[in-house]
Amino acid sequence: MGTAHSVVIIGAGFGGIGMAIRLKQSGVDDLVVLEKAGGLGGTWRDNTYPGAACDVPSHLYSFSFEPRTDWSRRFPQQPEILEYLWHCARKYEVLPHIRFGTEVLGARFDEDAALWRVSTEDGELTARVLVSACGQLNRPALPPIPGRDGFAGESFHSARWDHGADLAGKRVAVVGTGASAVQIVPEIAGTAASLTLFQRSAPYVIPKPDRPYREWEKALLAAVPGAHALSRAKVYALYESRALAFVKYPRLMSVMNRQFLRSLKAQVGDPALREALVPDYPMGCKRILISNDYYPALTRPDVDVVTAPIERITADGIVTTDGTHPADVIIYATGFESTGFLAPMRITGRDGRELSEAWRGGAEAHLGITVSGFPNLFLLYGPYTNLGHNSIIYMLESQFRYVLGCLEALRAHRLEWIEVRPDVQDAFGREMQERLRGTVWEAGCESWYMTAEGKVVNNWPGFTFAYRRATRRPDPRHFRARRAS
């Protein structure tokens, strides 16, 4: 089995790569990153569909310790984001620590040895500290539509895009109208002979202030000290201000809603189609999307929007309550299983406690990072840390610092393990639920932010700078610990 590693990280996306970099910078070199895929990148490795891009500006959707001044455009596209992550992994020498093609099946905390025993398809390894960097959007969700497996044509999820599928001249059905669909539809409309979009719930889609960076702008950002930092700060402040509408004063959404309706009317002339594209829930309750070409694509004569519920899928098409829609290809843009976090891995803590059982009523973790009953386990992008208004990279960097603080406490005080106290975790969970009440996310819609029972467990109900302040250092009073003998 070998000697126990200091830290094992599960996942090589933004969270795993950033955490590994920060650990190495703090002097921890005995670390391993376990990645089930053949390459790094997480969601930016998996989502290679046409038009895949980020909805946060590039200067903010990057590590503060590794600024990039030569982004090609304001909102980065998938290949450029993935290339940036590879650059970071190479520059900071993280690649030698990554074990690609190594899927974690589960992990068990050995209390006697004060070690995590991590089970993989290639065997077991041990670690003093286990960090989950699996993210929230890594397991594609396929809808339980009767007959789905009996479809005779090509079908795939947007996060598992089949690049061998030729859409030219085909009747293409797109199921779902989330963030990926808004990017996919404009890209494939016109290539396909026809495109039918099956909409269960209309999204709010607002204009995307995107454009390529001019060469002189990139030169200025690279040459002038502080120019990039100023650009990043400006974008951060603009996006952070939107938290007021999401969590403090949801009525402010009415201003954005009026702008949305004006923009929709300008882009969609057909009153019937326009009416079908107006959401039936308050703005912000679900993720607000950005695009300049989604609505124009829906007005094409070879594109049809179907709002009737899907009843079943047959060998040659989709049957809704209003008729049959032939299809040669079905693309599922149906999102992810976002509230399971570490699932389907089996994580066992002290006294044989199963994480799936502890989270039966919804995932809970103090500050979204530590879980009572699971010593030396730290989550990145865990419960209550998703955002509706700003960059998740900012939240991840806050979590990196907190985890490093916990590891420093282990070292400085010669502790075998630390574990957040159950009363502290419970108090944090109650605070989160109290603060979520009255937010736009609980305004009466179903979203990927909540469990099947309707409990919001994904989003941070506040400003990101408040989260950074809350995670600036671990409070010793929040933990119980065992000293090394």
TrEMBL record:
- TM regions (residue ranges): none
Output the superkingdom of the source species.
Bacteria
Tell me which Pfam families the record gives: Pyr_redox_3
- The answer to whether UniProt assigns keyword Oxidoreductase to this entry is yes
GO terms for MF: monooxygenase activity
The UniProt record lists the EC number as 1.14.13.-
**Gene3D superfamilies hit by this protein:** FAD/NAD(P)-binding domain
- Keywords assigned by UniProt, alphabetized: Monooxygenase, Oxidoreductase
InterPro entries per the record? FAD-bind_Monooxygenase_sf (IPR051209), FAD/NAD-bd_sf (IPR036188)
Please name the PANTHER family in this protein's record: FAD_NAD(P)-BINDING DOMAIN-CONTAINING PROTEIN-RELATED (PTHR42877:SF4), L-ORNITHINE N(5)-MONOOXYGENASE-RELATED (PTHR42877)
Q: What is this protein called?
A: Baeyer-Villiger monooxygenase
Organism, by scientific name, is Actinomadura macrotermitis
Q: What are the leading ranks of the lineage?
A: Bacteria, Bacillati, Actinomycetota, Actinomycetes, Streptosporangiales
